[in-house]
Design goal:
727 residues
């Protein structure tokens, strides 16, 4: 690392790409302000404090960031550590820089805590700050890099805490931003303090082994140069690269490998002018060395989510030496080293608003766009830990890359399933998922996705949605969060409907058939935490509030109590509607129509329905989504409706998708019995993927009771999905 001593060192770096005098004056003014404000302050090492923000600015300058970001780096500690306020920064340097300083200050206040919830909230704030302005995190990474370089001055306990925090949060951030150099230094330096014994062991192994390997690499580089010479590449650079210590450490620990088993400790990198040259070099390498199967990766055609592009191939040389070759363009090499900072390096005379820059970053860094979207969706995240887990697990640790049928790359964490894929595409796609096709083969929903898989999701608009078992199948926090939200809303909707039904019955028992619960009336129940009509129904269904109490208060207030004659007339009409047809279906204007329920779709009370006038068989009633409707003559369709107070049960067909289990049918039958329903028919079949499909016909009073039964059945752990049949 370079040793920067005074302002001239910073100017020497910035003057290479910042030519405008006013920009240089702004940076100098910020340095002078920081130097004055930090005067008399010292770091734990005993050095003047100004050295830290100065070094941070120098690190940022090597990344060629813009003047505003450099100024934020110089001032990032003044608001927290001096009398200088946010308003002072706005006054002297403008709101954009002040907001950056404020963001870095807030992120800088985050520390690991023994309280897990507090720790989660801290990281949530950091990630939200990143969603608002990525420059805040670039400054913070430079800040953390200098701190990790000078960790030796702190007590051991602090060293380990900061090093672990760096490995868990900041190094993955640098990786996702494609900032390889910063990521590698953060990891290797942190490992010194987290596992010093392994750090020293690997470091010594590299030194002791490198002489042989380096000789082999040098020899192979010379060979490759000779192989490429006849092709007259205009610009070409060939060099060796040593894998960083932490990367070797991870392979040794997580994959239980010995140092000797790691092929890519040393790699050869070939850098050329164009993409066409890259593929030509690859062909020449493969023509002269033996490639190892399944060790070729094309990150040029399919870049990594952090914008990294390169061709990777592992080959065996003529003398039996195994080595990796990376082939890329000069531009790709710059992005590989500096990531997002290289792509958006400051250019003189190019105007970039913060918003435009954020938009362009989001369009290039897909995961960053997802972070912004997720941050905006979660106006008030239900649980800080859930929010942080979603970012850490689903975004920072994504390392499985799969394809949509159209070729779009989707990145997911290891262990992800088709459900995680579906919810990453869209919440509604996830909620209506009934199956998945991977590489043209049907797979169960708990199939573990692998890099390169092509996935198509099967949906059904009449699916009842997620079951509780999905929480065991989904691996990403995002998918689990969406499933929980659906299940909570589903249970709430059923309870609301039940509460409304109970209240309707109570009003009818009191001869009130037309009532209006106004906001003024609901205010009487505020002590019960009831602020809406749905809250009222919910509390009644839960048993926290008696429907008799509600009706009594209503009558006591004399609010819209209907005339007794009207009430009697309505009751009379309802009785007529109820007894008009054995089917429970009413046709307006007809007193004794010939009615029949369609056996194809088995509609039940509560379903949206339509009548079809047949030739000689009367009116057949179908569910509005019946698959047969598309074949009917539109002019024969008529409006029909369900009668009230129907006291009978109806056959309804459902289809259940489940993992094969010997107790499955028994659990299904017990659930149906517990919901006071009876089975008319049941048929189970198995697929080659050890999935069981159960077709079931039960007697059910209405769609609300069916929904309750479905919710209970979803609790059976083997069941993936439940849907109405023939809809």
């Amino acid at each position: 690392m370079a040793d920067y001593v005074n302002y001239n060192d910073l100017y020497e770096i910035t003057s290479q790409y910042i030519k405008k005098e006013e920009s240089q004056n702004l940076i100098r003014r910020a340095y002078d302000v920081a130097n004055k404000l930090h005067d008399g302050q010292y770091r734990k090492s005993g050095e003047p404090y100004i050295i830290h923000p100065f070094q941070v600015a120098c690190i940022l300058a090597t990344l060629h960031v813009g003047p505003a970001t450099l100024v934020a780096g110089l001032l990032h500690d003044v608001v927290e550590d001096t009398s200088y306020t946010y308003e002072d920064v706005v006054r002297d340097f403008g709101k954009d820089i002040a907001d950056m300083v404020d963001g870095v200050t807030k992120v800088g206040q985050l520390k690991f805590s023994s309280l897990e919830q507090k720790q989660a909230e801290n990281h949530q704030h950091m990630l939200l700050a990143m969603g608002k302005d990525i420059r805040v995190i670039i400054v913070k990474l430079a800040d953390r890099l200098h701190n990790i370089r000078t960790l030796g001055a702190l007590p051991h306990e602090k060293q380990e805490r900061i090093a672990r925090e760096t490995l868990e949060i900041y190094a993955p951030l640098a990786h996702k931003l494609g900032m390889f150099r910063i990521k590698a230094e953060l990891e290797d330096t942190s490992l010194k303090y987290v596992d010093n014994a392994m750090y020293n062991k690997i470091s010594n192994q590299i030194k002791n082994d490198s002489s042989v390997r380096i000789q082999n690499v040098d020899h192979t580089i010379d060979e490759i140069k000779k192989l490429l010479e006849p092709y007259n590449f205009e610009n070409i650079q060939i060099k060796g690269r040593i894998k960083n210590i932490y990367s070797i450490y991870k392979k040794m620990v997580t994959q239980n490998k010995s140092f000797e088993d790691i092929y890519d400790v040393l790699a050869i990198r070939v850098i050329v002018d164009s993409i066409a040259d890259c593929y030509q070099v690859l062909g020449i390498i493969h023509a002269n060395y033996t490639p190892i199967p399944k060790r070729f990766k094309d990150y040029i055609a399919v870049p990594k989510p952090n914008m990294y592009q390169s061709l990777h191939t592992t080959v065996i040389s003529n003398d039996g030496f195994t080595f990796e070759v990376q082939i890329r363009t000069f531009e790709m090499d710059k992005v590989a080293e500096y990531g997002v900072a290289a792509h958006w390096a400051y250019k003189e005379n190019v105007e970039y608003s913060k918003e435009k820059e954020q938009f362009e970053i989001a369009s290039k860094l897909k995961w960053y766009g997802e972070l912004i979207k997720f941050s905006e969706e979660e106006e008030k995240p239900t649980e800080s830990k859930d929010f942080v887990d979603t970012i850490k697990e689903d975004i920072l640790q994504a390392n499985v890359y799969v394809y949509t049928p159209t070729g779009e790359v989707i990145d997911l964490p290891k262990g992800a399933t088709p459900l995680d894929f579906a919810y990453k595409i869209h919440t509604n796609l996830g909620n209506k998922t009934v199956g998945a096709i991977v590489n043209n083969h049907i797979v169960p929903l708990d199939y573990e996705l692998k890099t390169g898989d092509i996935i198509s999701i099967k949906t059904n608009k009449n699916s009842f949605g997620p079951s509780e078992n999905w929480l065991n199948i989904a691996k990403t926090s995002h998918a689990r969060h969406k499933i929980k939200s659906f299940l909570n809303k589903q249970n709430r909707d059923i309870l609301i409907e039940e509460g409304k039904k109970n209240l309707d019955i109570e009003f009818k028992n009191n001869k009130i058939s037309n009532y209006d619960l106004t906001d003024e009336f609901l205010e009487k129940f505020q002590k019960n935490n009831i602020n809406s009509i749905d809250d009222l129904y919910l509390e009644i269904a839960k048993g926290n509030l008696s429907s008799k109490t509600v009706v009594s208060k209503y009558q006591g207030e004399d609010i819209r109590v209907v005339d007794e004659a009207i009430s009697k007339q309505i009751e009379k009409n309802q009785k007529i509607l109820t007894t008009n047809s054995d089917t429970g279906v009413v046709v307006e204007g007809l007193t004794s129509p010939q009615l029949k329920l369609g056996s194809c779709c088995n509609p039940i009370p509560g379903d949206p329905i339509v009548g079809y006038v047949t030739k000689g068989f009367g009116i057949v009633v179908h569910h509005i989504n019946c698959t047969n409707l598309k074949n009917f003559q539109r002019e024969r369709l008529i409006d029909v409706s369900w009668a009230t107070n129907i006291d009978r049960k109806y056959p309804v067909s459902i289809k259940i998708y489940a993992k094969s289990n010997m107790n499955l049918l028994l659990d299904i039958m017990n659930t149906i019995s517990a919901n006071n329903m009876s089975i008319l028919a049941i048929n189970a079949s198995s697929t080659p993927n050890l999935e069981t499909i159960v077709k079931l016909k039960v007697m059910c009073p209405n769609s609300i009771e069916l929904e309750k039964m479905i919710v209970n059945m979803k609790k059976i752990k083997y069941i993936y999905n439940i849907e109405r049949d023939n809809l």
